[in-house]
Design goal:
Layout (H helix, E strand, L loop, with lengths): L26 E6 L4 E6 L12 E5 L1 E3 L3 E6 L5 E11 L2 E6 L10 E4 L4 E8 L4 E8 L3 H8 L25 E4 L11 H9 L3 E7 L22 E5 L1 H12 L4 E4 H15 L5 E5 L14 E5 L6 H10 L1 H13 L10 E4 L1
């Protein structure tokens, strides 16, 4: 499958650099797969498309200030470290800039020395496994030294770092925000609950896949990096009951989608677990878990545009993207949203 099948032209000025003042005032493109129709709304209109009995599944991961700038102790060489995934305890999988200078036992100092990192293992593609050395509480130290890991296409300074968190972010550990959830407000969530929509939280800590472009011509040769996810007993029970009763399960974002699909594909039902998944969804994949998807607009030739193309057909998605470009939608993390029914 040729990667160029998932390409489209995007003017740079349509890449959203800052979030809108009001989260739910972003635009919403509504795609109906059966009717092959496209509607143009605002995100707060989503209440008109969700119905009593629907189950809305959101990812409650919390973005950590995962970008650190440090110095290699032996040489004073500058190193950028992005925390990707907590392996166990104080051991983290990291993506390193200037990685060639980081060997096993290399020690890196950050800031005033309250945080250090020792390399335990060298992996390909700039990945290093590192042990964090510090006094006190790790996330408090990280808050004082780290920066929010905004994607490289965002050049503007983010004035309020909470705008790169969902209002329901809870579980520390993500290297990127589940951006479809950025459009929700507390008031909008309350309205949905009042209308009889059940809201379920899962956790998937977004990892390297967000930062790594597809570098192969044949999609099938692309290697997906694994991400950690959790599903509770309560969430699994609610989702299994919804399935049994034929009620809709609606994923907020591709991260929730991957969590649900990976879990159901593996266990043939929803099952409480905490584990890693490297599920790769592209056209030809048969969805089992979800009935609708809320998502943002994704980068050309990315695994995420493949995922939505598998849900709504590549031709329909590319038609919608072409219309979004013509109508000056805002793209990517701080951009507008899409609801696929």
């Amino acid at each position: 499958m040729d990667i160029n099948l998932f390409d489209y032209d995007l003017p740079q000025e349509l890449i959203a650099q800052t979030p809108l003042k009001q989260r739910d005032h972003s635009r919403l493109m509504v795609l109906d797969r059966d009717k092959q129709s496209i509607e143009h709304k605002h995100f707060y209109d989503i209440v008109d498309y969700l119905h009593e009995g629907d189950v809305l599944v959101r990812n409650n991961t919390k973005v950590i200030p995962a970008r650190l700038y440090g110095i290699k102790e032996e040489t004073n060489g500058h190193v950028e470290v992005l925390l990707l995934k907590n392996v166990e305890g104080d051991v983290w999988e990291c993506l390193c800039g200037n990685a060639r200078i980081i060997k096993v036992n290399t020690l890196i100092t950050f800031g005033d020395g309250r945080l250090k990192a020792r390399c335990l293992e060298v992996r390909d593609e700039g990945i290093r496994v590192m042990e964090m050395i510090y006094d006190g509480i790790f996330y408090e130290v990280l808050d004082s030294l780290g920066l929010m890991p905004l994607p490289p296409y965002i050049k503007e300074h983010l004035e309020d770092k909470d705008r790169y968190q969902t209002v329901y972010a809870k579980i520390n550990g993500s290297a990127a925000a589940p951006t479809a959830g950025l459009h929700f407000t507390d008031e909008l969530i309350a309205t949905l609950k009042d209308r009889g929509i059940t809201i379920v939280d899962v956790t998937l800590h977004v990892g390297l896949g967000t930062f790594r472009p597809v570098k192969v011509d044949n999609v099938l040769e692309h290697h997906m990096h694994s991400e950690y996810y959790e599903m509770s007993e309560e969430a699994a029970s609610i989702l299994n009951q919804a399935k049994a009763e034929g009620r809709r399960i609606i994923a907020v974002g591709t991260t929730s989608c991957r969590t649900l699909e990976a879990n159901h594909k593996k266990y043939h039902e929803f099952k409480a677990t905490h584990e890693n998944t490297d599920i790769f969804i592209y056209p030809g994949y048969e969805y089992e878990a979800i009935d609708a998807l809320i998502t943002n607009f994704h980068l050309p030739k990315s695994t995420l545009i493949m995922l939505v193309s598998a849900f709504a057909s590549r031709e329909f998605i590319l038609k919608a993207y072409e219309e979004a470009v013509k109508d000056h939608y805002r793209f990517f993390s701080f951009g507008d949203a899409m609801l696929i029914l």
